[in-house]
Structures are given as structure tokens and as C-alpha cells.
Amino acid sequence: MNYRKLGNTGLSVSEVSFGTWAIGGDWGTSRDEDGLKGLSLAIEQGVNFFDTADVYGSGHAEELLAKATKGKEDQIHIATKFCRAGDIHDPETYSKHMVSEYAEQSLRRLQREAIDLYQIHCPPIEILRDGSVFAVLDQLKAEGKIRNYGVSVETIEEGLLCLEYPGVESLQVIFNLFRQQPALELLPRAEAQGTGILVRLPLASGLLTGKFGKDSTFQPNDHRNFNANGEQFNVGETFAGLPFPKGVELASQLEWISEGRGNMARASMRWILDHSAVSCIIPGFKNEAQVTDNLAAGEVSSFTAEEMQRLSRFYSDDVAPHIRGGV
């Protein structure tokens, strides 16, 4: 396992880490037994960082992490998120009283004394412009409830705004072969400031596995069904903002990247890891097989300069015109 600095937090995290949205809920049927086995295997293989949120399965993902990391609290770092259990547009959601309560609830579910990284969960940009929530997070840090804090953002504009606040130690962003724009300005700025970068949706909700056809369907309780066009939250969180048929078509044009790299999923994640600003990728999983396959991304060969240029042109010419939900 390779490890990278998480910005200036002092944490060293596995470059392939894991998100827990899929084992918490909203990705179709999942079994706790499989999720726990996957978490155990990841830890055995050297993964020391997991991302979750209080709304993943209404806290269920946090509870699963508590079981999987019991007795390893000092070795396994956990990042969780808050605000979406309330009204994200209401300033009261970001008040000292409410944020403290959200943190206490997460701590109870995680069975921990402090949260390693506490992230605002994709708040509206007006909340970030106001900035009051950062003073609240500074207070929680001073009280010892959280050790570091960051923001999960939807757009580059939001990310750049967050970098103006000195207490923000990490940004969680959507960055993959279908969402390359952050590499132009946001990632270099974050790296220069020593701000950690967590990359979510590295496989664009599975599109970049190359396993889907235009006739593929998803269960009713899978966000790839109920949020395919942004019906429930930002459409960028589902298929990187691409209409599903177009995404399948574009993925078929990327089959060449898997040559010598095992498969398209590993190659897609390798491309992300080839950016030095990235602290870690946090793919999701439902079982041990997916954990094993995702971990292999750190072992495959990097992309050449010529390949990177080819992929950049592919994004600007063929992908970018179809992205919805902002970048």
C-alpha cells in the first residue's frame, strides 16, 4: 500500500481508501455481512482511511465502521460529514448548537472520542460565502470533538472559495476521466496551499468500469435510478452529470486505457492517482471482490504524457459539452 499526506493535517492516508455510501444505502441492495467483510479486508491490506456521512443509511454506514474499526481507532482514520440531515439552506443548520449535535450523534455511532476529519457535506455556496460555519468548526476543534475539518464540494467555484478560509484542511471533489476540470486550477491551488484532496466518484457511479450497456437498469433504491437526472440532489453526483446513454457511449471510447492495466476501472483510478495533488481516492464497494479490484489501481502502470494529452482532448472535445450540474 502506498500512503500520501492528507494536506497539512499530519495524517498519512492510503492512496486507495474507501467511501461507504454504497454499504450504507442508496446504491441498491447491500448486505451488512458483505460490507463488514469488505471493510475487514481493506484494513488487512493496509487501508487506513474511510469516508462516510451521517446520512449514509441514516447513520448506518457510521455504525458499520465502528464495528469494523473497534480496537483500531488510533490506526484507522475516519472522515464523516454533516448538514444534510437538516435543511442545507437554513443558516441554523450550521449554528454551533446544531453542528455540535450532528458531531455528537456521529461520535456516538462511530464510538469514538473525536472525528479525524469533519466535512461540510456539499453546502450551498451562500453558506460558504457567509463563512460563519468555519468559526463553528474552529470551536469544535478547540473543544477536541474534531481534529481537522474540510468541505465536500460540488463545483470548482465552491472549492476555490473554500481555499480562502485558512482552517479548511481538505476538499472532497468529484474528479475522474469524465470530470477533468479540477486539474486546471483547483488541484494546483490546493496542492500549493497544502490542502488535502479526497476524490469521490472516481468511477463516475460505475460508468468507468465499462460494464454497463445502454439497456442496463438499476434498482428503485439506487441513486443511479432515482437521481439519474438530478431529481433528489445535484445531478453531478450520479454518472458525473452525464446522461446515462451518453455516458455508456463515451465509456466505450475509453476501452484502450485498460491495455496493460488489467481493466478500465483500475486504469481510470490510476489516472486520478497520477495527479500529485490527490491525497487519496475513495471508491465505493459492496463486497470483498470490489475491494480487491479497487486496491489494484495503485499497482498498475501510470499514464504517459502522450496518453494524458489524449485523455485531456477526449474530455474537452467529447465529454465536457454533455456535463450537467456544474463543474
TrEMBL record:
Record EC number: 1.1.1.-
Entries under InterPro entries matching the protein: AKR, AKR2_Oxidoreductase, NAD(P)_OxRdtase_dom_sf, NADP_OxRdtase_dom
EC class of the enzyme, as a word: oxidoreductase
Keyword Iron listed: no
The protein's name in its UniProt record: Aldo-keto reductase YhdN
Pfam families named in the record: Aldo_ket_red (PF00248)
Domain called NADP-dependent oxidoreductase: residue spans: 16-313
Alphabetical keyword list: Oxidoreductase
Biological source species: Paenibacillus auburnensis
GO molecular function, one term: oxidoreductase activity
Tagged with keyword Oxidoreductase: yes
